[in-house]
Amino acid sequence: MSEDTISQIATPHGVGGIGIIRVSGAEAFAIAREIFRPARGDLGEIAPYRARYGQITAADGTVIDDCILLPMRAPHSYTGEDTIELQCHGGTIVLREVLLRTWEAGARPAEAGEFTKRAFLNGRLDLARAEGVMQLIAAKSARSARAARERLAGALSEEIAGIRHRLLGAIARIEAGIDFPEDDIPAASAAALREDIAAAAAATQRLLTGAHAGRILREGVKTVIVGRPNVGKSSLLNALVGTERAIVTDVPGTTRDVIEEEISIAGIPLRLLDTAGLRAASDEVERIGVARTEQHLEDAELVLAVFDSSSELTAEDQELIARLRGMNADTIILCNKEDCARILSVTDFDGVNAPVLMISAQSGTGLDTLRETIAARVQMMEGELSDGALPNRERETEALQRAARHLTEADRALAAAMGMDFVSIDLRAAYDALGEILGETVDTDLIDRIFSEFCIGK
Ligand code: GDP
Fold first, then answer.
1. Is the separation of the CB atoms in 322 and 332 below 8 Å?
2. How many Å apart are CA 276 and CA 259, to the nearest integer?
3. What residues flank ligand 1, with Cβ below 6 Å?
4. Rounded to whole angstroms, how far apart are CA atoms 159 and 435?
5. CA 315 / ligand 1 centre spacing (Å)
6. Nearest C-alpha to atom 14 of ligand 1 is from which residue?
7. 231 CA from centroid of ligand 1 (Å)
8. In order along the chain (458 residues), what is the average pLDDT of each group of 10 residues?
9. Rounded CA separation 223/236 (Å)
10. Whose CA is nearest to atom 24 of ligand 1?
11. Kindly report the CA angle at 222 between 219 and 224, in degrees rounded to 5?
12. What pLDDT is attached to residue 39?
């Protein structure tokens, strides 16, 4: 357990009705005693989990703010330490002054993620759950929030703990039987071990299968809007986002750089990128824009290809169609400006494996159908974007893949009767790799790095 008592504003910056300052550590109650004066009576013995109304006072006794004090006693707090929460008025200056007062009384500023890091170090949360906290805060869609909540509730942790439990049982049986002559493993034991390994490998594989869905829910489906200048890409982005973020103009090529927005469709997060187009560039800035578009198209998961339905296909449109024919990403063709004279038709896109929708980014016609089509496509990408235990960090996927490799090796060693030492080494390695996801077998540098990604006050 840490020595220091830390404090920080837990509510977002800016003005709000209420602002909360959290103080955690051995001195938390002492600090409350020093800076908080109850409205009525003495503070006396601080009773945990009982709110007290009063005032935060400066060292000279002047009142800084009214406040509700909420004390929590270790280990029954978020961090697992003595904690007080001070609910003050949510003004920037007031909160700052109360925060300074807690520092004056002996706390130090909490680093980003330090409350949650303490919760982890004190065994309140494993690493997979702790990341759930961050992901819940960062979630940009309902589905993402649900996945984060399930992670926080332990869906992934329990799945991993289950596999590790099974592996530990197998390791224990091997170690108990180590006095068997090496090449004389009873057949029944070998069969039982192989069964354990197969079950662990299958469960690990199931988790890996969910990794893509997990990543989509955390980061969003990478969706690239492409099309020649002036077909209405920025207008489409704006219409889907519902704000005037991208600049819409009549001058071709104004969206030179890539504009990115996050939206949510049917609860699924989408990273929407409006690109500069693929046209041969006339200057350096545009050349860079075109190169970026190329790059984004390479790793897009969904492509919205926009055409102007009120004009004939140009050479540039034809080039794009040719590219779409060879593309891996899921594609939807959008004939925009359907409110104008309609010249294009579905047959113009023969050979492209994509639905063709008539829309108007300006009037909004067809956008609901577009949203439905996007939702259906994403569902198809992932089967039913399943809930439950979804790894979603590179680090987690890598650890699972390592575990899977060791399980394959263990099984091979067993099948080849290579000796129990070999089997046991690989089973241990798989066990440890899975433990990394829970934060059991990772070094402190990595722990520090992970928690430093959290926000201040969490
Ligand atoms: P971008 O260069 O592809 O991003 O195209 P913009 O979104 O900047 O649009 C180019 C022009 O087309 C603007 O003048 C828009 O107002 C216009 N525009 C976009 N969508 C529509 C539409 O659905 N109908 C009509 N009539 N005009 C549109």
1. no
2. 9
3. 227, 229-235, 248-250, 255, 336-337, 339-340, 360-362
4. 12
5. 19
6. 250
7. 6
8. 86 92 97 96 90 97 97 97 97 96 97 95 95 91 91 96 96 77 66 94 94 89 92 93 61 61 89 79 71 84 94 91 85 95 85 91 95 89 69 94 97 87 93 96 88 87
9. 13
10. 337
11. 150
12. 94
pLDDT at 343: 87
The answer, yes or no, to whether the previous bond of 186 is cis (omega within 30 of 0) is no
In one-letter notation, the amino acid at residue 356 is: V
Whether 360 and 368 have beta carbons less than 8 Å apart is answered as: no
Ligand 1 center–CA 250 separation, angstroms: 7
Question: Domain 133-215+391-439: what homologous superfamily?
Answer: tRNA modification GTPase MnmE domain 2 (1.20.120.430)
For residue 350, count CB atoms less than 10 angstroms from its CB and return exposed for 0-12, middle for 13-18, buried for 19 or more. Answer: exposed
CATH number for 220-361 (one of 3.50.50.60, 3.90.1150.10, 3.60.15.10, 3.40.50.300): it is: 3.40.50.300
Q: Whose CA is nearest to atom 17 of ligand 1?
A: 232
CA of 232 to the centre of ligand 1 (A): 4
Atom of ligand 1 nearest to the CA of 274: 4
For residue 271, how far is its CA from the centre of ligand 1 (angstroms)? 21
- Spacing, Cα 336 to ligand 1 middle (Å): 8
